[in-house]
Design brief:
By secondary structure, this protein is α/β, with parallel strands linked by helices. The chain contains 7 helices and 10 strands. Residues 11-221 form the Glucosamine/galactosamine-6-phosphate isomerase domain.
């Protein structure tokens, strides 16, 4: 059963999340963080920046990455994580991985990423946002609840939602590598944030709906330790 915390603002959510990260890193300076991209985790990163923690030994694994963007593209999740997380929070770049970053063949990238996570001892705290389709990572509706890191096709809805980061919809990639729902469920603690009315239906489905591949976020109900931090608008259909 997820613990749902309804807060007054995204900033407050960021502070609560930062508290969890701070406690984890105090106990384990080389903790393994699961990193999400998108707009949702930004208040968490901002709150962590304000706390000026020493995160230099923290290891990180991004949830997902686009396929097909040129190396160094500013909207590749590798670049986004570097710009929004690694640099401002003082993580060590070599300790942060993104799916497919080993440069090997795409068909082996998923298994290689799973191995890397396992070798790190697994993810301690997985930060998650949720898409309007109910996706977590890029596990779109229909993703197996047991799935591992693999290539996926993005839905049109997700491409449209993410087009705001690109000059045009046409430039939004069509494929990605994403940790699977099974991968995410192996993290020891899930920390899901959602803000705004547009996420209300996905949050209601994820927290209270049936556990179903049609709403991948509902997989969180299979996990024993989940913290969901939402604002009033995202909680409005609970
Ligand atoms: C993106 C990412 C997800 C993210 C979700 C929500 O496409 N792949 O990891 O959680 O969709 O994005 P946002 O936080 O910008 O609403």
């Amino acid at each position: 059963m997820a613990e749902v915390v309804i807060v007054g603002s995204a900033d407050e959510a960021g502070e609560l999340g930062a508290e969890l990260v701070q406690r984890l890193v105090a106990a384990r300076p080389d903790a393994v963080l699961g990193l999400a991209t998108g707009s949702t985790p930004l208040p968490l990163w901002q709150a962590l920046i304000r706390r000026r923690l020493d995160l230099s030994r923290v290891r990180g694994f991004a949830l997902d990455e686009y396929i097909g963007l040129p190396t160094g593209h500013p909207e590749s999740y590798r670049a986004v994580i570097a710009r929004e997380v690694v640099e401002p929070l003082g993580l060590t770049p070599e300790l942060v991985r993104v799916p497919g970053d080993d440069g090997g063949p795409l068909e082996l990238a998923g298994a290689a990423y799973e191995r890397a996570i396992a070798e790190a001892g697994g993810v301690d705290l997985q930060v998650l946002g949720i898409g309007r389709t109910g996706h977590i990572g890029f596990n779109e509706p229909g993703s197996s609840l047991a799935s591992t890191t693999r290539v996926k096709t993005l839905t049109e809805q997700t491409r449209v939602d993410n087009a705001r980061f690109f000059p045009s919809l046409d430039e939004v990639p069509r494929h990605c590598l994403t940790q699977g729902l099974g991968t995410i469920l192996r993290a020891r603690h899930l920390l899901l944030f959602a803000f705004g009315e547009a996420k209300a239906s996905a949050i209601a489905g994820a927290v209270e709906g049936p556990v179903t591949a049609s709403l991948p976020g509902s997989a969180i109900q299979l996990h024993p330790l989940v913290t969901v931090i939402v604002d009033e608008a995202a909680a409005s259909q609970l």
